[in-house]
Amino acid sequence: MSPAASSSSSSKQAMGPTKIILPDLVSHCNFPLRHSRHRKQITSETKRWLFKGANLIGRARDKFHGLKAGLLTSMCYPDAAYPQLRLCNDFLTYLFHLDNLSDDMDNRGTRSVANVVLNSLYHPRSYQSPERIGKMTRDYYRRMILTASPGAQRRFIETFDFFFQSVTQQALDRASGVIPDLESYIALRRDTSGCKPCWALIEYANNLDIPDEVMDHPAVRSLGEAANDLVTWSNDIFSYNVEQSKGDTHNMIPVVMHQEGLDLQSAVEFVGDMCKQSIDRFVEEQRYLPSWGPKIDRDLAIYIDGLANWIVGSLHWSFDSERYFGKDGRQVKSTRVVNLLPRRR
Questions:
Q1: Pairing state of beta strands 19-21 and 337-339?
Q2: pLDDT by residue (tens digit) across 207-227?
Q3: Residue 11 — very low, low, confident or very high, per pLDDT cuts 50/70/90?
Q4: So what EC number does this one have (predicted)?
Q5: What is the total count of domains within the chain?
Q6: In the 8-state DSSP scheme, what is residue 79?
Q7: What residues does 21 pair with on adjacent strands?
């Protein structure tokens, strides 16, 4: 071998892998995929709501269109009436754009944003904040409380509070370069995902009024946790490429590589197996639900179906959205090959 060839070979090894193969999660998920007929209408109305009072052009506008939040909402809440579906889409879009929406605040730290958002939720009629994020929070929540049950309202606020507490911890970990152990990461990620308030919106979207003792039952909580794990862990797989290009280590794949001593592809497969197990767990644990009588059982079945909609809807949306794979989502969905982006300098 010539010196030039040897140098080239060692250079390639130093570069590390150039691609990953995604696990086939879509084929492992057998839940029916449905869409709401209101998708186009909510997309245009939410766009008007999001951009109101802000001169969002160019990249911000492209980011909104590429996100395709209306598609995700229509698949996750397919049976919701238009007013409820519109609010769900407002919230999901707002959640994805939370960083951008808080740019106008004096202190852009997570605690400052949390203070404005949570005060707007806990005191929607008395708390007044001039920041855009506060106005938007009050607007969608005032619409929500018109029809949401007291339990759904409480669960929505409490879980959104947990979300802000966990993203604050996540920001501290990032700043200090901490890679948590897998168990700690899973516990934190269940809140940083933002899934839990979305589960409360399943109740709201379907006009459910399920008693607290039912929603707090271990079997029901376990189903919500399994759905959260699938949505969250699969998101870590799909978002890994973009995140690694920015040097972000708050992702399950680097956590697994660090703890288990695995190479990149093996870690992707490890997390993929965990995702498949979470789907299996969701199916299996429905067998252990007790009965609370015909009315509650019927409402609970609708809620659990809503969790299943989130599982299947989020998987398909991840390839339709441009958030993770740009314009190549359909190709990636077919081949499962992801070419790794170079690290930003």
A1: antiparallel
A2: 999 999 999 999 999 999 999
A3: very low
A4: 4.2.3.-
A5: 1
A6: T
A7: 337
